[in-house]
Amino acid sequence: MAETWTMTSPRPIPGTPGSDLVRAYIWELPVRITHWVIFFAVLVLSVTGYYIHRPYISFGADQEFTMATMRFIHVVTGFVFTLAFLVRMYWMFTGNYCARWRAFIPLRRYQWTGMGEMFKYYTFLRWYPAFRIGHNALAAVAYMVIFLVMLIEILTGLVMFERIVHSGFLEALVGWIPLVLNIQYLREIHFFIMFVFFIFIIHHVYSAALVSAEEKNGLVESIFTGYKFVPVWSLTGDPSCIPPAAPRQPPPAPVNVVEKPQAPE
Amino acid sequence: MFRAPTLGAALRQQGISRREFLSFCGAMAAILSLPAGFAKVIAQALSETRLPTLVWLEFQDCAGNSESMLRSSHPDVANVVLELLSWEYHELIMAGAGQAAEELLERIVAEQEGRYLAVVEGSIPLADGGVYCTIAGRTAVDIARHVCSHAAATLAIGACAWDGGLVAADPNPTGAVGVQEAVPGIRVVNLGGCPHNPANTAALLVHYLTFGEMPALDEYNRPLFAYGRIIHDQCERRSHYDAGRYVETWGDEGARKGWCLYKMGCKGPQATFNCPTVRWNYQTSWPVKSGHNCLACASYRFWDTMSPFYRRLPQVAGFGVDTTAGEIGIALTAIVGAGTVAHAIASAVRHKIRPTETTAPGPTAVPPEPPHSPPKEDDHA
């Protein structure tokens, strides 16, 4: 009964009752790959970056090369992170409507109402979360902020890297930044953003688990598989992700809904 | 005016042999990152050069840059440079004083307009009309604008003349600024550092006398040959840094063994200067070699931006002096973690007590009318 339905080719399923959960392909492969590359990169960058900030293992032995190794891993992982970020930015303009930039930047009314609804849900002013196929509106804004934070992290990292390699290209790209803000503050920002990532990860995992449990939609699993379980009524193919008005208001009496299709027969 | 003898004769008078002069030229070529063959070119050019006049202005300073210049080495940077240039006005060392000295300065500006070199040491106060530094009844900014704007080139020597230095450090009561800010419209070459390294200043002058122009400059108008690379990449303790061997406290085993001063707040990774290679006091030593961390004294506004000098990162505004960015970050993460746990508990409670409302989308909701289904079904029927 549960048919597969992809975002890129909307295909309404005839004859299915509206609330049946169907398997919907939400997160495309580039989204999932960049998600996990960024996650593991942040993990590695945090461990090595914290060591660079405060070398927590001290070796007396002559054979060790700890800091140099940590720095090497940090720089290489930093570029992996940057690449994943760039791929994700590219996908902002080519992916499905859950991955596109429009989903993240609240320019439309339904995004603002969705934010209000989710805010009410998180502050216990609402019993149930508001439904969205992709990101809920509040999460989308949080992701937009975290993308900006990633960009700041990449730029501050490149400033410091430029000082070592003296690359003309990098200097043209980020050379103006230390003239605006002293390198010491750039270092501090670069370091402090690590905690912003930690805080984000705590909140992100928690809210994903929470909403996944509330909607029973396999949200947590979806970032591995790409599929979420969504009610049929949401599969309108509307790129704005607006759910139909019905589920948000008391729906019509079940008798009517069931009998209506039978009436013509 | 007084007619100077040739450089060679002047140097011989000082007891400096041709061999020592050539070794000086070689050292200058090395500091300027020129090929070894340029030592000959420099020697030739310096021997033939006509002695340009140099005036050395001191404003809000400690005379540390003058002292550094006079105590320079190589073994005789001071001698050679003093002989190379007609050092006409320098408050610290000139014999003349009072009206005679000021008249001499006026005469140089009038007679040698566009030909003399102006060196400025010390910051220039701008607050309250510049009254915080006056010489012979004129404010520092007035003198600087008058003398520097008529000079062939202006060198700002030391941190104070570059960016205001210590005098301009927060809260900067005199409104002190460097030369390039006090005298807009002129090209200033900045030789930051507290004090400047006289070998670099000598090399800059030698470059100017040899090639007739200033060397390549960076974004702060500092010569790239001296300020182009970070100290960390030239440091003799770098191998300890890479190996992960650090001084943990002053006087510990690591300090005695000469390990890396990174954890003591060394600013070598930030600062750009050629301190580790050119060194000080007859190339004897420099701060890190002598066991103290770098303060980045050659960096822009280092009193404000590089402090606290014994910490890796600056203080976070609005927090106590002992609070580091790391502590704030860990505390914030812990608060968010605790808040998340509290929210999870509250959400579980909500799940228990809430009504099974039809407003909730999902399997428990009563199926609404699918928007696309009825027409399709009608078609099939």
Short structural summary:
The complex is a heterodimer of chains A (about 260) and B (about 375). Chain A is mainly alpha-helical and about 260 residues long.
Helices and strands of chain A, in order, run as EEHHHHHHHHHEH
User: In whole angstroms, how far apart are the ends of chain B?
Assistant: 116 Å
Any low-confidence stretches of chain A, pLDDT <50, length ≥5?
1-17, 239-252, 255-260
CATH T-level topology of the largest domain in chain B: Rossmann fold
Largest sheet of chain B at a glance?
5 strands, parallel
Supply the number of helical segments of chain A: 10
CATH architecture of the largest domain in chain B: 3-Layer(aba) Sandwich
Global shape of chain A: elongated
**Backbone shape of chain B:** globular
Quaternary state reads heterodimer
Strand content of chain A: under 5%
Mean pLDDT of chain A: 81
- Give the largest interface pair and sizes: A-B, 73 and 65 residues
Low-confidence stretches of chain B: 357-381
- Strand count of chain A: 3
> Secondary-structure element sequence of chain B?
HHHEHHEHEEEEHEHHEHEHHHHHHHH
